[in-house]
Amino acid sequence: MAGNYSGNPVTHFGRQVRKERLARGWSIHELARRTGVAAGHLSRIENGKRPPTQTIAAKCDDVFAERRGWFTEYYEESRTWTPPGFRDWQEHEDAATSLRAWMPGIVHGLLQTEGYARALLETSPGVTEEMVAARLAARMERQRRVLMRDDPPFAWLLVDQLSLARLVGSAEIMAAQMGHLVAVAAMPNVTLQILPAVAHPANASELIVTDSAAYAEHVAGGYVFTEEETVTRLTRLFHTILSESYRASDSAAMIEEVGQKWTAGVSPASQTPTADRA
């Protein structure tokens, strides 16, 4: 690999395409002719507004042979900055006429502002600025591709009430995020609803780690991981969460305070009377 680059990896890929094109004195239309890729699409890639694909990287390697496969190599490395299970999801969303999304505890990625998304991505243990930039660019592009395309799907988006109160980044970021939710809710193809802090069947999200194994659960089931590297990574993730938690004494006091509110018939989440006390 030619080395790591600061900033947005999508922008860096595009800059390299433009650099090689201009060095040869080609117009964007000449590059389109040589690659078979539409000039408009190439322009968006050069400007960092569209992430590259494996096909685009391969075509760039074909026409810029002097780079000795740099474009494909860079693309493949950038894929390691994206969660593996999510890499092939784009084709499903691109073909969707309807979409339903929900995430427990935080605002869903399709609804996040850039500030909220960056602050959230930066909490991952061991994450580099390059990885954050790549994931952030992909997340913002996904929003444009899914919700703002010419024929957007009909979207039912559920927001966990607890996510409205969970601080991500700063108060300013949270205020901007609330404003963005209001704007998205007003889109004609979107139905956005808040799920109250009540029991429901789609809240499964669990992590258990022992000396030699880890168990992670989601709404479709759970899986036991025994590979040492994965167990180490999940152990580190657990301790990252632990480091952000209240002290044991403060936690006990908080539990007592919340207990008093429930005893008085007030929901700690909404600060309103519960249904049986209303």
Task: Tell me the Rg in angstroms.
Answer: 23 Å
Indicate the proportion of strand residues: 5-15%
Instruction: Report how far the terminal alpha carbons are from each other.
Output: 63 Å
Output the number of helix runs. Answer: 11
The count of β-strands is: 6
Average residue-wise pLDDT: 85
Largest sheet: 3 strands, parallel
Order of helices and strands: HHHHHHEHHEHEEEEHH
Helicity range = 40-55%
What do you see in this structure?
The protein is an alpha/beta fold. It is 47% helix and 12% strand. The chain contains eleven helices and six strands. The strands form two sheets. It has a three-stranded parallel beta sheet, covered by helices on one side. A three-stranded antiparallel beta sheet has the order 4-5-6, with helices on one face. Mean pLDDT is 85; it is low at 1-7.
In short:
The chain is α/β, with parallel strands linked by helices and 278 residues long. Helix content is 47%, strand content 12%.
Topology:
Blueprint: H1 9-23, H2 28-35, H3 39-46, H4 54-63, H5 70-79, H6 90-94, E1 98-103, H7 114-121, H8 129-147, E2 154-160, H9 171-185, E3 190-195, E4 206-209, E5 214-218, E6 221-225, H10 228-243, H11 248-263
Parallel strand pairs: 1-2, 2-3
Antiparallel strand pairs: 4-5, 5-6
Helix pairs in contact: 2-3, 4-5, 7-8
Keywords:
disordered N terminus; 6 strands; 3-stranded parallel sheet; 278 residues; alpha/beta; 3-stranded antiparallel sheet
